[in-house]
Amino acid sequence: MRRILLFSIVLISGVLLTGRLFYLQILDTSYASLSENNAIKRFFDYPQRGHIYDRNGNLLVSNQPSYDVMVIPREVKPFDTLEFCGLLKMDKEMLINRLKKARVYSPRLPSIVIPQLTKSEYAYLQEKMRKYEGFFIQKRSLRDYQIDFGANFLGYIAEVNYKDIEDNPYYQSGDLKGRTGVETQYEKTLRGIKGVKYIQKDRFNRDIGPYKNGTLDTLPVPGKDLTLTIDSELQKYGEELMVNKRGGIVALEPATGEILALISAPNFDPALLVGRERSRNFTKLYYDSIAKPLFDRGLQAQYPPGSPFKTLNALIALEENVVDSEEAFACHGGYYYGSHGRKLGCHHHPSPLSMIPGIANSCNAYFANVYRRVIEKYNSPQEGMDVWKNHLESFGLGGYMGTDLPTGQPGFIPDSKYYNRAYEYPKYKWFSTATISNSIGQGEVSLTPIQLANVTAAIANRGWFYTPHILKSIENQTDLIPEEYRTRNVTTISPANFEPVVEGMFGAYNYGTAAGIKIPGIDICGKTGTAENYTRIDGHRAQLTDHSIFVAFAPKDNPKIAIAVFVENGYWGSRYAGKIASLMIEKYIKGEVTRTDIEDYILSNSLEDEYAKPLSGKPFPINDGKKISGVPKKTEL
Amino acid sequence: MSSFSKAYGNFDWVIIALFLALVSIGWINIYSASVDPTGVAEFFDFDNLFTRQLLFIALSFLIVIFILSLDAKFFERFASIIYVISIVSLLGLFVFGKNISGATSWYSFGSFGIQPSEFAKAATALALAKYLSDIQTDVKSLTHQLRAFVIIALPAICIVPQPDPGSALVYAAFFFPLYREGLSGVYLITGSVTIALFVLTLAFGPLYIIAGIVLIAIALLIRNRKKRFGKRLYYILPIVSILFVFSVNYIFENVFEQRHRDRFNVVLGKDVDMKSIGYNTYQSEIAIGNGGLAGKGFLKGTQTKGDFVPEQHTDYIFSTVGEEWGFLGSTLVIALFVGLMLRIIVLAERQKSQFSRIYGYSIAGILFIHFLINIGMVTGVFPTVGIPLPFFSYGGSGLWGFTILLFIFVKLDSDRINQW
């Protein structure tokens, strides 16, 4: 014992200390990263964000330099707060608040004190900055908009929030990131990759040279330029036409699925969301819960499609072989059905009508007949309903379109399950007449403008379409466009069955519901729509003036443009939407507008009074005084 | 010189090789810890700590040659005189000492200083060896134990008020030769139990520890219930232990100073501010942890280059090893130390002369205490105690003190064929 005591203690101590080292150096990895923070500081070099061009090569969005005042809280030494606040034009309380917040975020990592100073503010501040330890200026680039329209699809960039930083370690506090629109969708392409420089620090935080001789440093990768499919002339013209109106317009190139114009009204100047003013302006736009300027009606608004939906019912009927284009149906001012003489009303027109004039004159009775035949062709209305829906889905309805824009809505196409639940099947049975509104695009069905534009493009193409998309090329290379936008989608309807429908739409312009808005020299095919719609006032359902809806494509053969226009509460189809569609088609195909009479009508008429009605708190007339809506009558209470 | 040439074949080359290895590795790390990362200072500029250390190393080789050339009997014969000179030099500090960073531990000669406490260890070892190896000394006698204790305590008492309690603590190492020579095991048990109770009470609080003591006492009583004599001890010892446990907090709060308490709290993982009190330990742990398996590489340690670990070239030199040479490098250094100490113990056991054996055990013990406390402190398992890592830490006196300590033994060992 006496001989081995020291011997064994030495041996055991050696083993124990080795064990401790094993723990510190091999097992516990937290120490390694601590040192990275301790002694090595990262400096970032932000690349220029990519520019955005329209399909004709016009520059839409470029960059302007901006300067952020940053702080690393633990490096701040006592300083002359009064002078500093004077320089930054902020009050002391705000400064203290910002510093506190920065410390909460991280004492070691930089946080923003004042974001996005202009060049002149920066020049003034630059020479005095070295006096304030722990503060520094980070150069970034902000967006510089060359246009004052298109804010809805361009999107904007803003500082990352905590969630962004948590989700993606690429981002640091104060970095800018795309929000909504193209800026979000193609964030990675546009932003490039920031460069990193590692600088080694001693314990007094003095630079002692690049870390590992700069072998870990990276150069920034500049962002790539995007070319969009948007025709900025058409976009601008469309937005001008939609002033004082609400609604959405989507114009597509049928042969490619490229979005020529994506208009949401009301819109705003994209420059509002740049720099220090962004936050205040955004709040203002965000809280405008009446006009909802941030709501992209072209992509997100789900409207009852109204009569343009009839073209789809005609196509399905032909495909299902329940009618041929020659068979005529009588219309006695509407369609009567059921045992209690219920009626689906119709407007005045010649009778009876076969398919082509049926579409041209938008006869409700014709489509009620045809629709019933489709549903009743099968053993049960359930089966018929699902066959019907299946056809519609092949046009991209009833689900998200899959466009390359981050927002969108699926719309709604009912199926048998929906009606089974609604009518408590099998306790109660339901028949095709219960869903008769679907025949004229009212009732349960709802679509977004881009879906309806896509349907129009598919009709223009006689049976196929490309998923609508906004990216034309990256750095002028078109092969970088995702595969799904270069793959043709084929509908369930055989091409031959499109001809009567196209003829019907052509007839609408020549002798039918859109005859008054003909454009000389262009063979346009169109379809009007007038959709009943409702809102809630104080919890009660109240009808509003009908939506004015129009779809069209032109020229009839080898079409260049397909368009869908929704004007909220614009009343009948050719009153607003049809005129706007005609003007835009003429503008796009001819490059100039000859129907200045209808252009004047659109530019001089406002729907703001119409939009103010439901807010008045009193009963109000709708549909040009044909009806009174709003506060319910006392007897109903 | 005749004795040098006659005996040099008998020198233990293992110890010499280990010594050379430790000194060179030590210097490489001092170089890394003290070279100016930005600067372009000349290598042979004596403002550089690593250049100075190189000079110290060169001089230590002269000391080695000098010691090895002396007659082996010299040390036994002059042990008492060397001891007295050493005590006088320690006492002289109270009059002539120079205060450097708060401690009056140096005699100053221009830009160099001599720290006599580094040499007093060797002197004490010699004196203790001489006293214990005296034919008339009986380690089992209380009087002789007391005398031996005085020999050990005298230099320690001189060192404590410098103040340099760390260096004084090293004198606990002399327990090992005493025990080897027959000191009762009661001291060993009492000492270990006291330390264990103290630390455990601080870590877990008195209640758990008292409960533990009571349980152990009951277990022992039941096991030995048939014993007829000495049962009283089973009652007395637990009571004494419990009283001690109760007094731990009092000692900790009233006898210890705040900084001592802080150092304990850092190691015990109590809630302390890692930016002030725990800074050294924390930064040192970061540096070592930073090394990983193979280290960051020579001159590439970010903690070392950034000077984040205070005193990194002296007491905290091992953190440089940890950061730049990783687990492999630090394990090698530990292995070298353990090897050196074990070699000394093995050699001590094979001495014929009791004097040489006691001396060997003394220096093995001293090296061990330095090794354990220093590396324990740097890796954060021991409270901060300012003592250097032998052969590694920057400093002339320290290096020379350990060189003398070690090579006296090499000389004694080489002479063992002449011993009887």
From TrEMBL, chain A:
Signal peptide: none annotated. It is found in: Cell membrane; Membrane. One of its GO terms (molecular function) is penicillin binding. InterPro entries: Beta-lactam/transpept, Beta-lactam/transpept-like, PBP_dimer, PBP_dimer_sf, PCN-bd_Tpept, Penicillin-binding_protein_2. Residues 616-637 are annotated as: Disordered. Residues 247-582 form the Penicillin-binding protein transpeptidase domain. Its main location: membrane. One of its GO terms (cellular component) is plasma membrane. GO terms for biological process: cell wall organization; peptidoglycan biosynthetic process; proteolysis; regulation of cell shape. It comes from the Bacteria. Keywords: Carboxypeptidase, Cell inner membrane, Cell membrane, Cell shape, Cell wall biogenesis/degradation, Hydrolase, Membrane, Peptidoglycan synthesis, Protease, Transmembrane, Transmembrane helix. Pfam families: PBP_dimer, Transpeptidase. Residues 46-207 form the Penicillin-binding protein dimerisation domain. It is a single-pass membrane protein. NCBIfam families: pbp2_mrdA. This is Penicillin-binding protein 2.
TrEMBL record, chain B:
InterPro entries: FtsW/RodA. The keyword Transmembrane applies. It comes from the Bacteria. The chain crosses the membrane at residues 12-30, 50-70, 77-97, 142-161, 195-221, 233-252, 325-346, 358-379, 391-410. It is found in: Membrane. GO terms for biological process: cell division; regulation of cell shape. This is Rod shape determining protein RodA. It comes from Leeuwenhoekiella aequorea.
